[in-house]
Write a sequence for this structure.
């Protein structure tokens, strides 16, 4: 504890002089970085538009209200597609994520120095890249449509699910596994009896959690042409049909709220 | 031998089902299978197009072996720098704003009206996705990184405030009460009773959000809100897979670096 | 029946947990392994069924040498040795019945175990064992709904349904209250007597060990310091095993055959 002697009395300080200097230097550097960033943003901005923004926002608002309610009849199919992209994408991702997670977890991987890094690479690379980018890539490869959306969601979700799952696997109680091993069970039986029951709740939670996120993500995949309600959004934006845009946004909002409610309910039932 | 034992010996044993009501169980199973079939039927897959695409897919995978950082180096560099700038600025502003909102959204320290308002802000921010917010903000503020910066700040507020509020709500009451009992004022109470308890987690979450913001900044360019996304989109449009691969590799490397740093920082603050 | 020859375990950190242990056990003997924490009791038990790989030495179960067995041979050998654990080590999210039946995993194929279609004889035996330990009504409860003593009973059933020759028991009472501890120890020893099973019980409660077993082995720093009947445990012996302490109180309880404790229950 730094205590300074000053005029014969001891004064308590939270930090030593060197510590507080370091502290201030850190803050100074941090502030400088932020100011630099802000200047760069400011330089790249046409401030005339920004000052004009309230008027434009008001303008958009008056055009967008009221929403064109009758347009909803054309949204049934896109919503169905959106749901399918999210659900099928999640299911495919889970099937692929399970083996990756087992290969990545320290306590189940067959080889720590060879296979585990590969599994971790799969996880980090699929996770780092947004589903919209995966969609862009897949559209370039297999053409636009719902299928590209499903695959994009699936790929993006592998890393996410596998990461959470392998962390769950690493946290299991090793003694339970030991007990099953001690009965003379084979490697696969140890997995089925010792490991799987322990990670089941985590697995179900991850599945529902990711499905909820995927509903959100699949609503916008259409912006790049990968099917779902985003296609209608992008088409309406292109022709500046603001009443349709506002209706679509309301529908997306409703979908997000409902999916969050469903996932909370299901998770509550499981755990 | 007890009668209960006699009753079960020689009988088959079945594991109790997860859903105990058989009608509900079968209903759920059949419903799910029917949904899967219906969903599969309505997806139009042009298999010949997919087959043709395999070639391009292979090309893309090969491009990862020979990424081209050079021919569009200046575009990549400026896009990446813009992404980083947006990320840093938005994270700082977002974190600063989300602290008061997070305090306000914690039921155990905020009065009810403040709580309702703050929870409302959190709910709106979480319900709207980054890309949709970005579209609206680009329409309002024009193209450029300002729209991206605002989008990311807005998203950060929803994310961080919610988690911060939950953390405050689950904190140890007795520590906070001890500080209050010493006669501290509200600000002092927050500073001494609440802050030390939630600080480590706040730091961890902030760095995690920085990581998310960077990843999100990579797509904002698709709708004109600045960052590396525009460059990436162009590369895909021109079928320049080697440049696209280079950009994707850079994104992955930066995300990995951020995760590594966040691991170190979290270990140090806890 | 069980014979350990010069069994050595050196951990990768360089700690020598077992220093050339020689031990021989006849059929049907219940043996208590005592010693301070870190003396290598757990390691010794786990080296026998190779949950921990011994560094050198031999483990003979009847005419079979275990340390050089390949995976499938080791599985077959493990079926002969039931194990009971300190923290029960039940798979908490499986039912009691599934936990008991998991003791048969070494005998049934993967698909049968996955679909839970065990042979009728196994199912009947599981019910009989559960009835024997008084948990028949709990068969379809999940293991994490049970109390500590009940869980340990399920653990015992799981070990016994293997139809083992030898029980390896690792601190069976460490997480139980005194009364339940005694009940569990009694149950284990009764079952061993009923079935003519040999058992190595690793236990740190000296008084409890003396109460139930025929032979006590004291371990200190990975070497055997004492091997004899429970009556031969004198304060001097306990001092060589555990170090300097007043041991009269610990032993006195046993001299009275634990009457005062029994009365207090």
């Amino acid at each position: 504890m730094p205590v300074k002697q000053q005029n014969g009395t001891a004064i308590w300080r939270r930090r030593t002089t060197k510590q507080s200097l370091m502290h201030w230097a850190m803050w100074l550097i941090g502030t400088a970085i932020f100011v630099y960033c802000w200047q760069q943003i400011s330089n790249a901005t046409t401030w005339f538009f920004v000052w004009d923004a309230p008027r434009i926002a008001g303008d958009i608002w008056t055009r967008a209200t009221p929403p064109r309610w009758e347009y909803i009849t054309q949204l049934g199919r896109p919503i169905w597609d959106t749901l399918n992209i999210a659900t099928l994408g999640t299911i495919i991702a889970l099937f692929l994520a399970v083996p990756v997670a087992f290969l990545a977890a320290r306590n189940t991987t067959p080889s720590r120095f060879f296979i585990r890094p590969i599994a971790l690479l799969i996880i980090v690379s699929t996770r780092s890249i947004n589903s919209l980018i995966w969609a862009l890539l897949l559209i370039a490869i297999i053409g636009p449509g719902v299928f590209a959306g499903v695959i994009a969601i699936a790929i993006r979700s592998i890393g996410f699910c596998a990461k959470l799952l392998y962390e769950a696997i690493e946290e299991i109680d090793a003694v339970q596994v030991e007990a099953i091993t001690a009965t003379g069970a084979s490697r696969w039986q140890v997995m089925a009896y010792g490991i799987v029951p322990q990670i089941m709740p985590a697995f179900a939670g991850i599945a529902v959690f990711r499905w909820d996120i995927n509903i959100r993500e699949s609503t916008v995949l259409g912006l790049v042409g990968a099917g779902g309600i985003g296609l209608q959004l992008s088409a309406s934006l292109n022709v500046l049909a603001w009443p349709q845009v506002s209706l679509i946004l309301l529908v997306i909002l409703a979908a997000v709220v409902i999916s969050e409610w469903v996932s909370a309910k299901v998770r509550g039932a499981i755990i | 031998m007890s009668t209960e034992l006699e009753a079960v010996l020689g009988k088959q044993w079945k594991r109790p089902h997860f859903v105990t009501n058989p009608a509900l169980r079968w209903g759920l199973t059949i419903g799910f299978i029917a949904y899967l079939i219906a969903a599969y039927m309505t997806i139009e897959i042009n298999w010949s197009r997919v087959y043709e695409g395999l070639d391009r897919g292979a090309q893309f995978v090969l491009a990862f072996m020979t990424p081209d950082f050079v021919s569009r180096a200046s575009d990549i560099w400026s896009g990446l720098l813009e992404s980083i700038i947006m990320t840093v600025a938005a994270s700082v502003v977002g974190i600063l704003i989300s602290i008061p909102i997070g305090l306000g959204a914690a039921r155990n320290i905020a009065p009810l009206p403040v709580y309702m308002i703050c929870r409302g802000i959190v709910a709106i921010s979480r319900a709207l996705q980054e890309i949709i917010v970005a579209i609206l903000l680009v329409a309002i503020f024009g193209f450029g990184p300002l729209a991206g910066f605002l989008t990311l700040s807005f998203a950060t507020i929803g994310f961080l405030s919610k988690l911060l509020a939950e953390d405050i709500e689950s904190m140890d009451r007795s520590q906070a009460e001890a500080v209050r009992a010493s006669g501290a004022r509200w600000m002092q109470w927050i500073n001494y009773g609440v802050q030390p308890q939630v600080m480590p987690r706040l730091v961890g979450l902030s760095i995690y959000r920085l990581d998310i913001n960077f990843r999100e900044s990579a797509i904002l360019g698709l709708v004109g809100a600045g960052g590396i996304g525009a460059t990436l989109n162009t590369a895909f449009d021109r079928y320049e897979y080697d440049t696209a691969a280079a950009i994707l590799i850079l994104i992955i490397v930066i995300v990995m670096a951020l995760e590594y740093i966040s691991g170190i920082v979290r270990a140090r603050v806890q | 029946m069980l014979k350990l020859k010069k069994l050595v375990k050196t951990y990768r950190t360089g700690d020598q947990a077992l220093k050339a242990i020689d031990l021989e056990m006849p059929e049907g003997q219940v043996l208590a392994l005592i010693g301070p924490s870190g003396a290598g009791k757990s390691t010794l038990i786990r080296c026998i069924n190779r949950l921990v790989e011994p560094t050198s030495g031999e483990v003979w179960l009847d005419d079979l040498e275990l340390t050089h067995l390949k995976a499938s041979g080791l599985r077959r050998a493990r079926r002969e040795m039931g194990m009971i654990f300190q923290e029960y080590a039940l798979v908490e999210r499986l039912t009691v019945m599934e936990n008991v039946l998991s003791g048969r995993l070494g005998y049934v194929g993967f698909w049968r175990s996955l679909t839970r279609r065990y042979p009728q004889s196994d199912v009947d035996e599981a019910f009989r064992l559960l009835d024997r330990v008084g948990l028949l009504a709990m068969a379809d409860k999940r293991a994490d709904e049970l109390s500590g003593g009940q869980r340990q009973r399920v653990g015992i059933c799981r070990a016994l349904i293997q139809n083992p020759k030898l029980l390896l028991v690792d601190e069976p009472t460490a997480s139980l209250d005194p009364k339940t501890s005694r009940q569990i120890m009694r149950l284990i020893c009764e079952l061993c007597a009923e079935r003519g099973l040999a058992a190595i019980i690793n236990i740190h409660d000296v008084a409890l060990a003396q109460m139930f077993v025929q032979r006590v082995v004291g371990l200190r720093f990975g070497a055997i310091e004492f091997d004899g009947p429970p009556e031969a445990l004198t304060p001097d012996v306990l001092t060589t095993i555990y170090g300097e302490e007043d041991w009269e109180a610990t032993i006195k309880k046993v001299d009275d055959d634990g009457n005062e404790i029994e009365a207090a229950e």
Summary: Residues 179 and 194 of chain A are 8 Å apart (CA to CA). The radius of gyration of chain A is 26 Å.
